[in-house]
Amino acid sequence: MTLISVASFKLNIINEKLYEVLGGVYNELIELFDTDVFHYGGDEVNNHCYNVSKEFREHFEKEGKQGTEDDILELWKVFQDRVFE
Fold first, then answer.
1. Full pLDDT tens readout for the chain, 85 residues
2. Which of these, 3, 15, 16, 48, is most buried using a 10 Å CB contact count?
């Protein structure tokens, strides 16, 4: 049996406010630690939670997508690119 967590602890990567909050957190962390390396995670995320949320299904539908694994990975890439900015 496979268990997929759909806990509320996942980031809502289609919520614009998230980028403002993460930007503040990441900027503060960079100021606190003298380093040129910053790993913000994402390599261990189970992206399948995004196609079970009504909000995400509506987002994919609006974008003309089905919420396939490729659609979810593309959305995750957009999130990572935006966080990196």
1. 444 454 545 788 999 999 999 989 888 888 898 877 877 777 677 777 787 888 999 999 999 999 998 999 899 899 988 987 7
2. 48
- Which DSSP symbol is given to 61? H
The span from the CA of 68 to the CA of 74, in Å, is 10
Residue 49 CA to residue 24 CA, distance in Å, equals: 26
Which of these, 67, 61, 74, 22, lies nearest to 49 by C-alpha position? 67
DSSP state of 67: -
Give which of 18, 29, 21, 85 is closest to 10, Cα–Cα: 18
The ranges assigned to domains in the chain are: 47-85
What pTM, to 2 d.p., does this model score?
A: 0.74
SS3 call for 2: coil
